[in-house]
Write a structure and sequence with these properties.
By secondary structure, this protein is mostly beta strands. It has one domain: Jelly Rolls. Helices cover 5% and strands 43% of the residues. The protein is built from 1 helix and 15 strands; from the N terminus they run αβββββββββββββββ. The strands form 3 sheets. The protein has a 7-stranded antiparallel beta sheet with strand order 2-5-14-7-8-9-10, with no helix packed on it. A hairpin with a 6-residue loop joins strand 11 (166-172) and strand 12 (179-183). The chain is globular, with a radius of gyration of 17 Å. The protein starts with 5 loop residues before the first helix and ends in a 7-residue tail after the last strand.
Length: 236
């Protein structure tokens, strides 16, 4: 996690102490250290690598999910299923830091999604609120997605570039009627339709890479993430 953002995550943590749900991690120790999530991999050579402590000066601990050499290799970083329901209390917020060392191409294609996603394999979104990247869509720019059976895809205007850290943030309002998307602290999209909100939709954190074409291994670096959800009118 960028050193300059340590205070922000600490603030999220203390805000979350009064909330219904909070998960966070900086991936700083080892493969077995990441609060609130587990890694699920499929395909030959797919899994989590660790570049190690001190990967870069500003990102001292990261995970490196890689697809391996299967044409459908994939890695999911998941929280407990149905951990969150949006639009039933207070705001829901999600943050992470992500970098791709290699971009998707027509011959070695993959997709990356972060946020709240429910997937049907091999690559069908069932419901989702989050960011999506695929070189064949939207000119290779980050997309802001809400999907409740139908999908809204908003162009963030931010081109995905290799070797660049992107800080993603999603803020879902208390009523579940608006999702704001931020990249590197700038508001880049707002979705107000096809939001899977209310008690009929249970969400879990899902940050993943899925290979679509080709057998060369691909991956992304993921740094600290934080998720918390406010509750209102509830005594603890």
């Amino acid at each position: 996690m960028p050193v300059s953002d340590l205070n922000n995550v600490q603030e999220l943590f203390y805000l979350g102490m009064d909330n219904d749900a909070l998960i966070h991690s900086d991936f700083t120790i080892s493969l077995t250290f990441a609060e609130g999530v587990l890694a699920v991999a499929a395909g030959a050579g797919a899994g989590i690598l660790t570049p190690g402590i001190g990967f870069t000066a500003d990102h001292p601990g990261v995970w490196f999910p890689v697809t391996g050499t299967s044409a459908a290799g994939r890695v999911f970083i998941l929280s407990r299923i149905n951990s969150f329901t949006v639009g039933v209390g207070g705001e829901t917020k999600f943050q992470e830091w992500l970098q791709m060392p290699t971009l998707s191409t027509p011959v070695q294609r993959f997709t990356v999604r972060t946020g709240f996603w429910s997937m049907a394999l091999p690559n069908t979104v069932v419901q989702g609120i989050g960011f999506e990247y695929d070189d064949s869509q939207n000119g290779g720019r980050w997309q802001a997605i809400t999907h409740d059976g139908a999908e809204t895809s908003t162009d963030t205007g931010i081109l995905v570039t290799a070797g660049t850290w992107f800080k993603h943030e999603i803020i879902i309002n208390a009523d579940g009627t608006e999702v704001q998307y931020f990249i590197n602290n700038d508001l880049v999209a707002t979705n107000t339709t096809t939001i899977p909100s209310g008690i009929g939709f249970g969400h879990f954190v899902n940050m993943h890479i899925m290979k679509l074409i080709g057998t060369a291994s691909r991956g992304f670096y993921i740094d600290a993430y934080a998720v918390f959800q406010e509750t209102e009118g509830r005594d603890i």
